[in-house]
Amino acid sequence: MARSVIPIGPWHPLQEEPEFFSLTVDGETVVDIDVSIGYNHRGIEKLSERKSFDQSSFVIERICGICSTSHPFAYTRAVEDIIPVEVPDRAKYIRTIVAELERIHSHLLWFGLAGHFLGYNTVYHWVWKLREEILDVCEILTGNRNNYAIFKPGGVRRDFKPDDFPLVLKKIDGIIPTLNRLKKAVLDDPVLHARLKGIGILTKEEAIDYCALGPTSRASGVARDVRKDAPYGAYDRIDWDMIVTENGDVFDKVVVRVLEVYESIKIIKACIRDLPGGEIDLNIKDIPPGEGIGAHEAPRGETFHYVRSDGTNRPARHKVRAPTFMNLPTYKATVIGETISDATIILAAIDPCYCCTERMAVRDVKGKKMYGGQDLVRLSQEKTAKIKREMGIP
Amino acid sequence: MMTREEVLKDLKVRFKEDIVDLFDKSPKRVYVEIRPEAIVKVGTYIFKDLQARFNVASGVDARTHMEILYHFSLEYINLLISVRVKLDRKAPAIDSLATVFKGANWIEREMNELLGIKFRGHPDMRRLLLADEWPEGVYPLRADYREWDVNAVRDRGV
Q1: Pick from A41, A45, A229: which is nearest to B75 by CB?
Q2: Cα–Cα distance list, A246 to A22, A183, A194, A231, B75 (Å)
């Protein structure tokens, strides 16, 4: 059968990283993949050099709408590493709570999309409704659903009010029953097992070679989590577990994320219970010359910031590395050898920005046949329906 | 697994000839400056033998020279080793680490186009981030960068 090239992307910069995939296929099987990024390169590293240390925390919050805690968290830690200082305990707990809320809503967003790709549109609407509850909690605590503007070098900008905690805890507890049903639906559903097990495998050696991060590496048996390896915030004072599975396929990546939501709930509740009193901000005035490194375990993996100060009030250099930068190249290991109908969910499994995966186009070399992104999602959904029929499930 | 002290002592002995400076900043951070020629040797040892994770590299235009910091995490002892190399600013070039581990591939492409550092032996040095119409030889993260075309955005009709 003739080889064809499938271009995927990069039209719609819905999220922070539109990507362009070019899949070379032989019949139904993917034989090569190439990725190009940079369609939305905004030069934030350069922009940050023109802002003061305080202003930069607002700029980098806008790197990503979903990770609007992760980048400021890593950045403020990098600036604090220059001096170096430790932030007050209360600020550490507040930061941890916001970061874990973000992890929950980011993972839920991903479940919804994964459900949609697989033809489980009920899951999609179910989960996004749950996510709204968490966004409400974010709004109650910080004033914003996203872009919380709560991080600053030396502490946090706003304090939490104890009066809000009963409602917050009620809302968080409220999502658990639905989450339990979701977990049961994922872990016990024979269709999902048949659909997701054994596809898109990233082996442990490949995960190490590509320096994969976050759930992508943890699903491959690489126990790697900045919160455990280099504890910060309140993560070393609270009892929680790192979720690691061994198979590295799409199913395991789903499992890691489902179980991590439970851990995040555990962390938030413990933080609210143990929230210490005292100051929330060190009021740092001057940043001395030097260099600092900050990392934070974002929902997708480690976010890494390097900041150099020359003694002025602006960073002399600010390097930002988002987790997808390390996770994206693993496609080379996971997609080759799989079918086109599985490519959608494998490409989505590392939780990149979904715009790229829902906007795909397929065409053969002569340009005769053309599939749009919706067709590819349909292909993926049809495969699930086929498995259901074979199993005799309505 | 080695302790923090053993790792540092081992590095000092093993790469006695190559280490220019070792700055023990804090319990979690160590900065090691090495000769640029030794980067593959040192990088391979830290990544493979010490089983470190490569976080990322950060290139800096320090005006007098070009600098690259390769950040490696030793997760089992919670230590971040930043390997620093200083390159000639007029023609910065260094051996590629992308052949040793795949995680270094993209960041070297990025430094190549944003800072103009050449990586010898890199398997795939295509443009990664900048637009296709961006001219060759204009490096936006250099300190002396001037906007090459102030009308660029308007002309594209964006």
Answers
A1: A229
A2: 29, 18, 18, 24, 19
The minimum CA-CA distance between A161 and chain B, rounded to whole Å, is: 34
pLDDT, tens only, A6-58: 776 654 433 345 667 777 888 888 888 887 777 767 788 888 888 999 999 99
Strand residue runs (E) in chain A: 3-8, 20-26, 29-36, 151-152, 155-156, 290-298, 301-309, 315-321, 362-363, 370-371
pLDDT tens-place string over residues A176-201 = 999 998 888 878 888 888 888 989 89
Q: Out of B60, B105, B140, name the one closest to residue A308 (CB).
A: B60
N- to C-terminal Cα distance for chain A? 35
Q: Which two tokens stand for residue A65?
A: 């709408």
Residue at token pair 């990546």 = A253
Q: Point out the residue among B53, B75, B130 whose CB comes nearest to the CB of A38.
A: B130
Q: Is the peptide bond before B36 cis (omega within 30 degrees of 0)?
A: no
Q: Which helix (H) or strand (E) holds A340?
A: helix A340-349
CATH fold, domain A44-326, is Cytochrome-c3 Hydrogenase; chain B (1.10.645)
Q: Do A85 and A279 meet the contact criterion of CB atoms below 8 Å apart?
A: no
Task: Measure in Å the smallest separation between the Cα of B31 and chain A Cα atoms.
Answer: 10
Question: What part of A 245-304 touches B (C-beta under 8 Å)?
Answer: 291, 293, 295, 302, 304
Q: What is the pTM of this model?
A: 0.90
Please, are residues A352 and A328 in contact by the beta-carbon 8 Å criterion? yes
Instruction: Say whether B129 and A326 touch across the interface (CB within 8 A).
Output: no
**C-beta of residue A276 within 8 angstroms of C-beta of residue A129:** no
Which domains does chain B show, CATH number per domain? 4-120 (3.30.460.80)
